[in-house]
């Protein structure tokens, strides 16, 4: 049993370890991508709610001003 035999004996184990390492890296990347997509979707919902609220506030302000101008012209 020489050094050459030991080098070939561990070759399969190194390949297996490398495969497990690559799998772990891929799984972490998939999980990070999932978290990024979830965060983006939640942000989009909050932005939509904020925009709708802002538009509602501006619409009510414009309606009040329009009514005030209408009341001035009627008097």
UniProtKB/TrEMBL annotation:
Keywords: Fimbrium, Membrane, Secreted, Transmembrane, Transmembrane helix
A Pfam family this chain is assigned to: Class_IIIsignal
Compartments where found: Cell surface; Fimbrium; Secreted
Main location: other
Name of protein: Uncharacterized protein (UPF0333 family)
Keyword DNA repair: no
InterPro entries, per database record: Class3_signal_pept_motif
Gene Ontology CC annotations of this record: cell surface; extracellular region
């Amino acid at each position: 049993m020489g050094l050459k035999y030991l080098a070939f004996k561990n070759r399969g184990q190194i390949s297996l370890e490398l495969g497990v390492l690559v799998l772990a890296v891929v799984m972490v990347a998939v999980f990070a991508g999932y978290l990024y997509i979830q965060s983006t979707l939640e942000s989009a919902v909050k932005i939509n709610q904020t925009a709708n609220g802002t538009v509602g506030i501006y619409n009510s302000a414009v309606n009040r001003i329009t009514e005030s101008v209408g009341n001035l012209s009627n008097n």
